[in-house]
Amino acid sequence: MARTLGTDFSAQLDSDSFRPFYAISFAFSPNRLNLWSGYNDIFFDSKTFVGSGNLLDISKLEETSDIKAIGMIVKLSGIDSNILSEVLTEDVQGISAEIYFGVLATTDNETVIVNEPYKIFDGFIDTMAIQEGAETSTITVTIENKLITLERAIARRYTDQDQKNLFPTDKGLEFVDDLQNKSLVWGGGARD
User: Fold this and answer.
1) I need a labelling partner for 142 at 20 to 30 A (CA). Which of 19, 68, 70, 159 fits?
2) Domain with 78 in it
């Protein structure tokens, strides 16, 4: 997929002191979990991302010209027990996950984001494995691409009731049941 880069973003990519970062957002309920691969907190896309430093590990992103769903794996190590308890109580399958790529300005020591980070992956959590250690825990999250929904069977029927579930006032399929036993004469009147 072609992406347009801002001029400042492109300049940073060509810079000798290039400072990239990744950020990830999980839509847990009621609190989103937003982490990024740096330190301190940053704010973009109307969300605050908590710095996780080296504790965040994201697998290689693969894109193809084919339309196919390629997933990703995210590992979170050294997880705080408060986050761990929230994750354990949540039904995680199907929760949305977004991964961003951005660059930081290299002119000063402040954490300044250049342009808006790009969303490089958008999907749903498939599985989450937790490995507990004596002091810290590691969570391995498998994320499926949103294209995976193209592979699922659609459980829709062309019936009046199914249509009314989506559009209560629609009468487009109201007489489909009556058509089952109708005898239609095509091209003229009845034959003798």
Assistant:
1) 19
2) 7-151
Number of domains the chain is built from: 2
> Same domain, yes or no, for 46 and 119?
yes
- For residues 92 and 123, membership in a common domain is answered with yes
pLDDT in tens, 23-74: 989 888 777 888 888 888 888 888 888 888 777 778 877 776 777 677 888 8
What element of type H or E holds 76? strand 72-77
* CA–CA distance, 121 with 137 (Å, rounded to integer): 25
For residues 177 and 107, membership in a common domain is answered with no
